[in-house]
User: Which sequence fits this backbone?
């Protein structure tokens, strides 16, 4: 549902194991190393323990992928709830040998011949049993008998038992002590850390074809880690729900608020529970206020009556009604009768109000899309409001809208086409104009006003309300949020852009270290952007004009 909106090629957070999405944390790599060591050392039995969702299957699939060469023969049993004979038939079937018999001794004999042949040919045979905590004692005894197939100096088969912590309790039973004592290599898989959680989320989004249209900020990552405790499966469930909520709300920056909502939905906690707490708190405050008023009225009745008649900040005479032309706080208003506050609408404001607002916004959107070479829209099909609908339609063309508040000249300094929000409002909220070019003291706007697309900058400055949306494309797919010390190829692209912009003189090593952080801050200061070590959208938007590897439209150039 949300993949196309956010520019993914596929869902990034699915529950089914997919080798392309494999992310090996420090603990996963250690588990993999233990398993490989036990196999190559021919220890016979190896145990892998991990809580539900910690990635045991990921490790096993990675291992099996590593063993796909002529030196190994592997088999995976992932439904161990079988009888001893059924398990033997499954094992033989996985190895591609005769599994037709219904007798354990005959199946073992076939397996033994196969193992001897493979040993003679110098190949190691590996049997992996996943979810081994579901094995019953009788079946485990059958597995022990399989391990008895050996030569004088070598084990013919390496058996990996992978399961949840219940497997340890199962093997600790006295009747299973023979098999438990044979396990030479053991590893308990732990959840991933918070830093690895951030890397895990980003990794899966990149594999899914992330285009920079959505991001999880650092507060979201903290909430994700606190709720999931670093369990990959829970991270997938929570992030998938968060993306769905963000899609419904037309949000592209996922923060702690969206993660909190996702947690409530996953746990099926009604919002009323939270509303009830707030309501109780409000009632308590109201009771306290009433009690205080009662005490004042009792001990100082004269002051109480005076306060009721003339509360602070309220005049005795009610204010006169105002008329407005569908406007917000910062919009143009037909003022009250007070002469000091009244003013006439300017000619350009009256001209703008005479236009159909939906058509005006569609012209503005298409002008911006056209500057980036993106396809235009014959019709929006929805109410073109700012910024949500604009952002959603622009994203289909691979573009982003980034909020900037300041003066017109400050917005022009980004040297990118932008959407300017005016002081005039209509049914869809404030009217918006596209600013696509700037020459000296004039600006090119869309749609044209008075039949002309060029407007004097001073006139335009008096029309806008100080809110702008920069339109840009994250060509290098640089993450909006980067943490100190992070390593990734896209940081090399960031360093290259900073070098072209001037403040960076170090290597393109892909490490977000001190020199790169300092360069980011220096660049932000030079552009009047609030300093933020995490980079941010405004910084990337300002840097994109320095990308010589792509055709970037500018206000003053092409």
Assistant:
């Amino acid at each position: 549902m949300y993949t196309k909106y956010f520019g993914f090629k596929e869902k990034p957070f699915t529950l089914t194991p997919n080798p392309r999405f494999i992310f090996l944390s420090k603990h996963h790599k250690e588990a993999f190393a233990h398993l490989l060591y036990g196999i190559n050392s021919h220890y016979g039995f190896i145990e892998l323990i991990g809580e539900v969702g910690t990635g045991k299957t990921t490790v096993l699939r990675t291992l099996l992928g590593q063993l796909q060469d002529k030196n190994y023969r592997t088999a995976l049993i992932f439904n161990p709830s079988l009888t001893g004979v059924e398990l033997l038939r499954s094992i033989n079937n996985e190895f591609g040998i005769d599994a037709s018999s219904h007798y354990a001794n005959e199946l073992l004999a076939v397996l033994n011949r196969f193992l001897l042949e493979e040993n003679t040919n110098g190949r190691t045979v590996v049997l992996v049993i996943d979810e081994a905590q579901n094995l019953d004692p009788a079946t485990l005894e059958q597995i022990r008998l399989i391990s008895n197939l050996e030569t004088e100096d070598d084990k013919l088969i390496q058996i990996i038992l992978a399961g949840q912590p219940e497997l340890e309790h199962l093997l600790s039973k006295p009747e299973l002590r023979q098999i438990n004592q044979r396990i030479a290599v053991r590893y308990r898989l732990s959840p991933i850390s918070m830093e690895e959680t951030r890397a895990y989320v980003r990794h899966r989004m990149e594999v899914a074809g992330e285009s920079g249209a959505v991001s999880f900020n650092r507060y979201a990552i903290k909430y994700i880690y606190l709720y999931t405790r670093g369990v990959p499966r829970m991270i997938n469930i929570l992030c998938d729900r968060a993306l769905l909520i963000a899609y419904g709300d037309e949000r592209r920056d996922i923060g702690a608020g969206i993660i909190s909502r996702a947690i409530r939905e996953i746990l099926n906690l009604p919002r009323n529970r939270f509303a009830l707490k707030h309501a109780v708190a409000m009632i308590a405050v109201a009771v306290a206020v009433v009690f205080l008023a009662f005490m004042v009225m009792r001990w100082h009745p004269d002051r109480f009556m005076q306060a009721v008649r003339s509360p602070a900040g309220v005049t005795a005479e009610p204010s006169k009604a105002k008329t407005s032309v569908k406007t917000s706080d910062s919009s143009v208003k037909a003022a009250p009768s007070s002469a000091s506050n009244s003013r006439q609408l300017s000619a350009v404001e009256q001209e703008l109000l005479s236009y159909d607002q939906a058509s005006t916004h569609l012209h503005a959107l298409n002008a911006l899309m056209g500057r980036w070479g993106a396809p235009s829209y014959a019709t929006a099909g929805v109410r073109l409001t700012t910024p949500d609908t604009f952002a959603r339609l622009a994203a289909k063309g691979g573009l982003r809208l980034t909020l900037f508040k300041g003066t017109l000249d400050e917005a022009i300094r980004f040297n990118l086409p932008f959407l300017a929000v005016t002081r005039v409002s209509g049914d869809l909220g404030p009217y918006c104009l596209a600013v696509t070019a700037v020459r000296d003291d004039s600006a090119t706007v869309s749609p044209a006003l008075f039949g002309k697309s060029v407007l004097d900058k001073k006139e335009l400055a008096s029309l806008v309300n100080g809110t702008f949306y920069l339109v840009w494309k994250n060509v290098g797919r640089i993450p909006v949020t980067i943490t100190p010390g992070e390593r990734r190829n896209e940081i090399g692209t960031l360093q290259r852009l900073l070098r072209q912009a001037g403040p960076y003189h170090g290597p393109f090593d892909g490490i977000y270290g001190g020199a790169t952080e300092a360069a980011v801050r220096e660049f932000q200061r030079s552009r009047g952007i609030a300093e933020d070590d995490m980079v941010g959208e405004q910084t990337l938007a300002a840097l994109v004009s320095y990308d010589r590897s792509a055709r970037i439209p500018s206000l003053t150039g092409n």
Summary: The mean pLDDT is 82. The first strand starts at residue 45 and ends at 50. The CA atoms of residues 242 and 307 lie 49 Å apart.
